[in-house]
Write a structure and sequence with these properties.
Number of strands: 13
Largest sheet: 8 strands, mixed
CATH superfamily of the domain at 4-170 and 202-228: NAD(P)-binding Rossmann-like Domain
CATH architecture of the domain at 4-170 and 202-228: 3-Layer(aba) Sandwich
Number of helices: 11
Helix content: 25-40%
Oligomer: single chain
Shape: globular
Strand order of the largest sheet: 4-3-2-1-5-6-8-12
Order of helices and strands: EHEEEHEHEEHEEEHEHEHHHEHH
CATH class of the domain at 4-170 and 202-228: Alpha Beta
CATH topology of the domain at 4-170 and 202-228: Rossmann fold
Radius of gyration: 19 Å
Length: 304
């Protein structure tokens, strides 16, 4: 009998790719979503409304594994007070809702695997390399990731193997942050952001989804894991590489930090700061990244 994987956020960028990978590996997939689609031969859809605290419990009770990706996008809108609350609540309350179903029904899934972010280490610019033991930051993203992971820990306390994937910038075909960057670079208008020295810990979506698959299949995998390439890519390197793929050298002036701050407000820290990330913990488990070269990863995403 096929093992059943329940996905939250399954209709999003990462969720769609992961769904296909799971199906290809012979798993049965269910998706919790606010707007359920018609079931197919491969995928079952269930409804939930996190803000209302409602959920079709059958989705959880039938699952062998849960992969929790749901959460409001960090970079889609300016960080108003209301937006910040939505970003935090969408992660913490959704995890709490899943935990309540598991606890009230004494349901023991084989593993609960939650997304998190390298933003837990804060808006850093420096030479230090963040490992999973690096203290969490006290800025907005740091606090969001901390609360997100604390919510997942309540499921670990139920005796369920829990894995938290701290994800870097995800590269994918026509999706993710490349969807915003590529059009400008395609027109020859690409530029460096700020001083360009900020690190951009990236990961190809194929490798990220393979890490989630590993978290299902490797019972020794538990706790937090960084999911990013450790190659010291800065914004200047990333921008130069992307421009080269489109056949030109950067010629536009750097976009000053104050312009981004005026345009994006507090959210400008996403563009102006970064951090170096260690992935040694994953490598020690035997995981091997398929895409370790930025140029090749970008070419795959851009069909170049």
């Amino acid at each position: 009998m096929k093992k059943k994987v329940l996905l939250t956020g399954g209709t999003g960028f990462v969720g769609k790719y992961l769904t296909q990978m799971l199906l290809n590996k012979g798993y049965s997939v269910s998706i919790l979503t606010r707007t359920p689609k018609k079931n197919t031969d491969d995928i079952s859809y269930y409804s939930w409304d996190v803000s209302a605290g409602s959920i079709e419990e059958k989705a959880v009770l039938d699952a062998d594994y849960i992969i929790h990706l749901a959460g409001e996008s960090i970079g889609d809108k300016r960080w108003t007070v209301a937006r910040k609350k939505a970003i935090l609540d969408s992660r913490v309350q959704s995890t709490a809702l899943l935990a309540s179903v598991l606890q009230s029904n004494n349901k023991k899934v084989k593993a609960f695997i939650s997304a998190s972010g390298v933003g837990v280490y804060g808006a850093l610019n420096g030479k230090g390399i963040c490992t999973e033991d690096t203290p969490a930051a006290h800025d907005f993203l740091g606090k969001v990731c901390q609360e997100w992971e604390k919510a997942a820990d309540t499921i670990a306390k139920l005796g369920i193997r829990t894995v938290k994937i701290r994800t870097g910038l995800v590269l994918g075909k026509d999706e993710g942050f490349l969807k915003k960057m590529a059009p400008l670079f395609r027109r020859g208008l690409g530029s460096v952001l700020g001083d360009g020295k900020q690190y951009m810990p990236w990961i190809h979506i194929h490798d990220l989804c393979a890490i989630y698959l590993l978290a299902i299949e490797n019972e020794e995998m538990e706790g937090v894991f960084n999911a990013a390439i450790e190659d010291s890519t800065t914004n200047a390197i990333f921008s130069k590489t992307l421009a080269n793929i489109y056949g030109y050298s950067l010629w536009m002036p750097k976009i000053p930090a104050f312009v981004l701050q005026l345009t994006l407000g507090e959210m400008a820290i996403l563009a102006l700061t970064g951090r170096r990330i260690s992935n040694d913990k994953l490598l020690l488990l035997g995981f091997r990244f398929e895409y370790k070269n930025l140029d090749l990863a970008l070419r795959d995403c851009l069909n170049k």
